[in-house]
């Protein structure tokens, strides 16, 4: 059972209270972008064995979207953080580094 | 305005009493809860201070619950809701805020019984730690009740209140009745 702490209401919400929102920190490429950029934005997703960043929504709760950093292999949760960021905050990165030295995800290390 | 509540006063006696709490005024207020103007308007309209995260504050015939970082639920007598909503909307003019009387969109149930069993009836339906240390009177929790969204709180150790959308009131009522059926006691909370 995956349990994530909602950074907005502070609840340790379990999976059934949440809704998965796919990969985090995607940059949108819309009108005016190249075909390659648009295709990558639409279809190219990370599928890592290990550190991953995801979007989740506390659907049966406060209703807010937030981010979670977790390990896809062990289901260990490194931390959750608010949605108003375009990349993981430093404290979350430090926590991951402490547990998974040398990790990388897309161009984030 | 509705003249009948969703379940029209239905009641069930099991390990706890489950009853339709009748028509209940509920006003949704969305806005910046940190704003002094909003806090002042809420205080003037309800007499209550903005509750802390996941808390509910009680007045004589009203209550104020924390729904999310930008949402409050104001509980009032059914007849007073339109006037309070109008007063709030007036006071919040110019603010980035929304006031809506949601009374007819929701249903409320009242559960009464022995403290341990009461917690158990809710705990069977929601993924929430309902131990007395984790959740008590004054706490408010939005969650799910089996398959539908709902919220609950305790008035005191022997009374709980559950709210859900009116469209799923029948489902929620039956759910609570099944959870409170005789012979279904678990005894986890003593």
Automatic annotation (TrEMBL), chain A:
Protein name: Sarcosine oxidase subunit delta
Domain of life, source organism: Bacteria
Record organism: Thalassovita mangrovi
GO molecular function, one term: sarcosine oxidase activity
GO BP terms, alphabetized: tetrahydrofolate metabolic process
InterPro entries reported for this sequence: SoxD (IPR006279), SoxD_sf (IPR038561)
Segments passing through the bilayer: none
Pfam family membership, one: SoxD
UniProtKB/TrEMBL annotation, chain B:
Top-level taxon of the source organism: Bacteria
Signal peptide (from-to): none
InterPro entries (UniProt xref): SoxG, TrmE/GcvT-like
Protein name according to UniProt: Sarcosine oxidase subunit gamma
